[in-house]
Amino acid sequence: MSCAYLLLAISLCVSFANAVEVQRPRGVPLSKRQFYEENKPFTCLDGSRTIPFDRVNDDYCDCKDGSDEPGTAACPNGSFHCTNAGYKPTFIPSSRINDGICDCCDTTDEYNSGASCQNTCRELGRQERETLQKQAEIAKEGFLLKQQLINEAKKQREEKQGKMTEMQTNRRTMEEKVEALRTVKEVAEQPEKEAKERHLKAWEDQKAIIRAEKDKTKMAEAFLELDDDADGYVSVVELQSHTELDPDSDGALTEAEAQALLGGAGKVDTSSFESAWDNIKDKYISESQADSAAVDPPVEDNRPPVPDNEPYHDDEPVDEDEENEDDDEDDDYPEEDSDKPIPTVHTPEKSEQDEEAMPPYDAETQTLIDAAQKTRDDFDEAERALREVDDQIKSIEKELSFDFGTSGEFTYLYSQCYDLTTSEYIYRLCPFNRVSQKPKYGGSETNLGSWGSWAGPVDSKYMVMKYEHGTGCWQGPNRSTTVKLICGKETVVISTSEPSRSLERRTPPRGY
Amino acid sequence: MAAFIERMGLLVLACVSLLVSGSLAVDRGNFKTCDQSAFCKRQRALKAGQSPYRALLDTLELSDSRVTLQLINDNNKVRLLLELYRLQGNMTRVKINELKPLRPRFEVPDVLVSDPPTEPMSLLSQDDNGVVLSLGVQRQQRLIVSARPFRLDIVEGPEVLMSLNSRGLLAFEHLRMRKDTQANPEGGEAKEDADGEEQQVEAKETVEEGVKEEEMDGMWEETFKSHTDGKPNGPTSISLDFSLPGVEHVYGIPEHADTLKLKTTDGGDPYRLYNLDVFQYELFNPMALYGAVPVMLAHSTARTMGLFWLNAAETWVDISSNTAGKTVFGKMLDYVQGASETPQTDVRWISESGIIDVFIMLGPTPSDVFTQYASLTGTQSFPPIAALAYHQCRWNYNDQEDVQAVDKGFDEHDIPYDFIWLDIEHADGKRYFTWDPHKFPTPKDMLQGIMDKRRKMVAIVDPHIKIDSNYKIHNEIRAQNFYVKNKDGGDYEGWCWPGSAGYPDFTNPQMRAWWASMFAYDQYEGSMENLYTWNDMNEPSVFNGPEVTMHKDAKHGDWEHRDVHNLYGFYVQMATADGLIRRSGGVERPFVLTRAFFAGSQRYGAVWTGDNAAEWDHLKISIPMCLSLGLVGISLCGADVGGFFKTPSAELLVRWYQTGAYQPFFRAHAHLDTPRREPWLFGPENTALIREAVRQRYALLPYWYQQFYQAYRTGQPVMRPLWVEYPKDTATFTMDDQFLIGKDLLVHPVTEEGSRGVTAYLPGHGEVWYDVHTFQKHNGAQSLYIPVTMSSIPVFQRGGSIIPKKLRVRRSSSCMENDPYTLIVALNPQRTAEGELYIDDGHTFSFDTKKEFIHRSLTFANNVLSTRNLCPESQLSSPSWIEKVIILGASNPKGVNLKTDGKVTPLDYEFDASMSVLTLRKPGVNVGADWTVELL
């Protein structure tokens, strides 16, 4: 990692600082001195041609590779070596020789331009050493911190993995428990179901008896009503006054039709009216009610007469809540939608009142129900617990699946957020999650990207984080953020830059 | 920058304005068509061949310098005064104004460099039908004034060169009293009592006519979208038609995103000249853009002429081509040429106000027309050499660190650049002349850092001034009453980048002087001598104004904005350039880039083609757009490299760098919401391609600089259409894809996506051209297919030319100042060549004030290359020397001798027989010295 590089740089620096100055043509590095032998013809380093030595550094480019002019600007592709005693030696392009700009700290590049350059190598070397020392200290501390973090991460990871193993074991137990409870529940539900059915059947039978009695009463009443002449018979003519009984609905109850209704007889007495009643009772309108004409609408009640375990009323509001939650998440969705389900809640309630209530369960059945309910509750409870464990396992799995660095040194950043306030915005970096920006003085937040991947160069992949698919730009791509990590002692977002509105918002935090 | 719509997006959020502009093209509805511009509609409704104007020949007065003559409109009896001038240099000026206007009509000041010197005219003959004036014996030119209907014909020998009002479309809407303010017509006429009976009668008739004319819409008020233009002066428009017998090709009248050759406008809108901030402009149409130069060139194999319509109001130009039509001449034209099939182009100019003041430049060569026009409006300002180098711009470089990082990036990737630019975000809340205290807290440190690299910076200074009582510039302008006024007399306020803004009245010379003083180092805080200026939005752009510009009834002193509109940007740049000169005590040459311009703007700096887009067609159009500007004097022209809006592909960006490297003003620029596109962001291969293109530019800087010196001296365009140099070669008349730099370099950039080859036309029978990269020789007068790769920039040097180059490309042009020269001698089939070498300090006026320059001719003939001082009184000692001479089309000599100071020394040389290239090694002579090189 970077810390290691920094340490390496220090050692290089020391060795160069001790370099010894050796005579050689201007601009030639020590390593190539042997190719420039005074008073011998010079062969271009690419071997392309040989020229007299006085054409080396004569300010005219003879070699295609520029090697004959190491100390002048004559060749477009040449390079000049600055020894920079006291600091780092370096190569500069030939075009920077005598261009009036001091490039080499030992001033050797400006030997004929009139530029007044100061030799700054010693000072630079000192600064460099100081900086490197400081960085090394930081790096050392950082290294320790890193070790610590790695250890912690390792521990955490192990803990997590341990926890997961444990939870997976638990899960199996719980799964078994759920299964066992399911069996218990099913076992308990069987007698409950049977008892309920028995109770229901008894109730149905009783209702049938009541209904039959009611029907009988109604028939007797009807017979009396129909028997206009009170002769103890209902005749065809008497029946014909009830046009609502017309079987072909042509508005008239013909004699034949009436007779058919009466079972083919011209008139019927109370006992034979029984069969005729079956023919007419559905349509028959009692004369006493005919005026009000109000046939009670058939009660449409699909509900089983016995209340269920999970009544409607409990369900509905739950649905509603869920919808409201959806609404909250989606700003564009109009608010009114959440009102929709409400009206349906109350309608069935009213109409169910006029049915005679089922008598309460007998004690025996109730005991069975209570017992079954308990097994259900136990089962639900166990299932919920299992789901919770599943969620926990999933979340640990997700966390474990993140690439937190070679040794998990970035684990501690997970589920943290770091803010940086600039003159305009508050930037928020939540590593492995997302980056956002909020105007300092009000305004909505802009998503600058969600966790994408590590995006450093091959050899230091973990130096750069990439967050992608942020809010789109005007006529441009989606925003994305590049986070550069620098070694340090604490974790902070140091700075941001926005090279263009749309791409690459660098938010380098100190790693550790 | 851009216009209103986009700014709205910025207000809402950083850049989430996805919904604001669904279409990426211009919103045409924001801009008027001729039909929506009341005067254009009125004028265009006039029928040809019914001219009511008659010349009153008995009013003819001839003096040494001019002829005057009254014209009468037989419909309304309003009299006009015609003034005719013969100007030195083969020009004729025709001025028409009302004889007795109710109020003075606007005449454009400050555009002409001086009162053009005249030549005497003489009366050749006169009768009832007309007058014949001599325009000079030398060319046998005559000016024929026909009386009924009025008409002018300019004739040379037996040929009619140009006819005015030949179609009878002269129309002059005289000033009149408004009907409802005319309750007491006596009062109005009383003033005219002194003018006698006849005038009174006429006045009455005028009034009657006026009443009749007032029935037409838009004469006293005009509403476009939500903007109402109150027109207290009523209708004031003018129009005149010109016929050009024998002409099929007309050019000029920029700025339009259209082909070089102007199209006929029959059935469409006329070309419009009205400086406008057009958001995402469309290509290939006559819509107005940011600048206006009312100059048209007419060219045929026989002759080149020019028309300069000196009017700064909204102007429309109709062009029709009538190849079969022949002008009907009066009796006096009995020597009309016989050919009846002569092609002819008719043009008609319509302006909203002012007077008719037209300069007819009679050529006859293209070069003559440039000279003539330059004598009227001046030549291209001579830019500092750095301005001809590469410019790196973006909206915006965010802060000082960003600037530093970009500067460093160029060095890291070894790409030269001279200027880095700061757009509007650098200022504190768009208060120009200030710096954002957070992003640019220490501008001088930043500028010093750039100066240490011998580079420069440009910061934007727009003419809209934030209305803010804590802003010094605003307070001073308000205190001195320098703002443009609205129609009610209050300070005009419009909406622009800073929000509510005032617009200084740049037509006021005191205002301009004050503005110039604001560039003084002690006034413009944080500025240094390497900070230069960019004037954007100077059409002026007013986001909430009609057509995104200023209300026409706003007031500049006594004049309406209507009268001066197209001058506003011209004056802004004039005042800014003056400021940059003054801050240096008159020593340093200024560099100011402007978006809006007018005739004469060439005197003040550079122009770019505004907010283009990263599209191949926009790359292509950069050629005809800059060629058109060059034809009318503005040579320092460029298009945003890469395209301003949208994001270029790497290929497009590379091709644009390659093209821009061979166009005069070479600046990359990008919109705020586009991804970064510094040259090194597209992978090493593309970085290398861009580096190479930029390096080619730097190597050629001596040639570019010399071309601009010539442009400054003579007014010849730097970037030229081929027909300028090959006026008889009709194949060159409509070329939009290649051009010349000076006369010696021909450029045919690759502007097609995925191109495998281009076909370049090499002109000139019996001439040869050399590929500048391979030195391969090609014959002229042929279309040449050139296979291309991504690195190809097809450029050819004309055989017969000598071009100086500096092959040691460095970080910036300043770094190359003292570097040696390489001469590229390209021999023609006669084995001769000519060229020049111009050198000065590159940035001061000393070349002019102290004659501190080197200007030498270079001649190759009879196997001898020699140089001669073209200006013996000049003096400059330069450390530069001649490093190398490359002779193309040479044969292998037996030896080469250099003669200088009476000494003869043999030179080493190399001969490449396969390409016939002779390279002379290190002559080593000073560029200012006399010397000869002889090939033995």
From TrEMBL, chain A:
SUPFAM superfamilies: Mannose 6-phosphate receptor domain. Residues 316-338 have a biased composition (Acidic residues). It holds the Pfam family PRKCSH_1. InterPro entries: EF_Hand_1_Ca_BS, EF_hand_dom, Gtb1-like, Man6P_isomerase_rcpt-bd_dom_sf, MRH_dom, PRKCSH, PRKCSH_N. GO terms for molecular function: calcium ion binding. Residues 284-360 are annotated as: Disordered. Residues 415-512 form the MRH domain. Residues 146-213, 372-399 form a coiled coil. Residues 1-19 form the signal peptide. One of its GO terms (biological process) is liver development. PROSITE patterns: EF_HAND_1, EF_HAND_2, MRH. Residues 214-249 form the EF-hand domain. GO terms for cellular component: glucosidase II complex. Keywords: Coiled coil, Disulfide bond, Endoplasmic reticulum, Signal. This is Glucosidase 2 subunit beta. It comes from Alosa alosa.
Automatic annotation (TrEMBL), chain B:
It is found in: Endoplasmic reticulum; Golgi apparatus. GO terms for cellular component: glucosidase II complex; Golgi apparatus. Pathway: Glycan metabolism; N-glycan metabolism. Residues 83-318 form the Glycoside hydrolase family 31 N-terminal domain. Residues 1-25 form the signal peptide. It catalyses: N(4)-(alpha-D-Glc-(1->3)-alpha-D-Glc-(1->3)-alpha-D-Man-(1->2)-alpha-D-Man-(1->2)-alpha-D-Man-(1->3)-[alpha-D-Man-(1->2)-alpha-D-Man-(1->3)-[alpha-D-Man-(1->2)-alpha-D-Man-(1->6)]-alpha-D-Man-(1->6)]-beta-D-Man-(1->4)-beta-D-GlcNAc-(1->4)-beta-D-GlcNAc)-L-asparaginyl-[protein] + H2O = N(4)-(alpha-D-Glc-(1->3)-alpha-D-Man-(1->2)-alpha-D-Man-(1->2)-alpha-D-Man-(1->3)-[alpha-D-Man-(1->2)-alpha-D-Man-(1->3)-[alpha-D-Man-(1->2)-alpha-D-Man-(1->6)]-alpha-D-Man-(1->6)]-beta-D-Man-(1->4)-beta-D-GlcNAc-(1->4)-beta-D-GlcNAc)-L-asparaginyl-[protein] + beta-D-glucose; N(4)-(alpha-D-Glc-(1->3)-alpha-D-Man-(1->2)-alpha-D-Man-(1->2)-alpha-D-Man-(1->3)-[alpha-D-Man-(1->2)-alpha-D-Man-(1->3)-[alpha-D-Man-(1->2)-alpha-D-Man-(1->6)]-alpha-D-Man-(1->6)]-beta-D-Man-(1->4)-beta-D-GlcNAc-(1->4)-beta-D-GlcNAc)-L-asparaginyl-[protein] + H2O = N(4)-(alpha-D-Man-(1->2)-alpha-D-Man-(1->2)-alpha-D-Man-(1->3)-[alpha-D-Man-(1->2)-alpha-D-Man-(1->3)-[alpha-D-Man-(1->2)-alpha-D-Man-(1->6)]-alpha-D-Man-(1->6)]-beta-D-Man-(1->4)-beta-D-GlcNAc-(1->4)-beta-D-GlcNAc)-L-asparaginyl-[protein] (N-glucan mannose isomer 9A1,2,3B1,2,3) + beta-D-glucose. Keywords: Endoplasmic reticulum, Glycoprotein, Glycosidase, Golgi apparatus, Hydrolase, Signal. It is an enzyme of class 3 (hydrolase). SUPFAM superfamilies: (Trans)glycosidases (SSF51445), Galactose mutarotase-like (SSF74650), Glycosyl hydrolase domain (SSF51011). Residues 182-216 are annotated as: Disordered. GO terms for biological process: carbohydrate metabolic process; N-glycan processing. CDD domains: GH31_GANC_GANAB_alpha, GH31_N. Residues 715-803 form the Glycosyl hydrolase family 31 C-terminal domain. InterPro entries: Gal_mutarotase_sf_dom, GH, Glyco_hydro_31_C, Glyco_hydro_31_N_dom, Glyco_hydro_31_TIM, Glyco_hydro_b. Belongs to the glycosyl hydrolase 31 family. This is Neutral alpha-glucosidase AB.
